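Worked problem 6 (solution included).
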Amino acid sequence: GQIAGSTVVVFMGHGRHGLVMWAGDSRAYLLRQGALQPLTRDHSYVEELLARGEITPADAHAHPEANVITRAVGAGQELYLDMDIVELYHGDMLLLCSDGVYKELSEQHINAIMRHGYSPAGIVQELINACLEHGARDNVSAVVVKVIERV
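Solution. The predicted structure is:
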């Protein structure tokens, strides 16, 4: 009796700007000068409770309805993607990932892996390995993009 859908996060870069679009709880993060910051906000019941101040961030992680998504691909007649434009700088890295990554690894752990000096492909492999070591209770999907200046 439930409708199945899929979350999505998309990044398109052009010149010094990038467009991030998303629906559901797949996320985009920006690593700039060693600081990791989220670029997306989950479309979930728990995120709505947080925004209204009805629960604390500590309550959110263990909330019984933590997996209830309020927007997803295929879940309705129409799809609405949130979007944001980000200015890009040489050395920036973007992480696009499913909830299987950020629910297994803290943002501090993700930050440490991304700052380690691996290539984008190496970062993805290290993130996957770390998720598997933690039990990988959900699907683990990740893409890393590194911004470089043209020569």
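Discussion: The chain has a mean pLDDT of 92.
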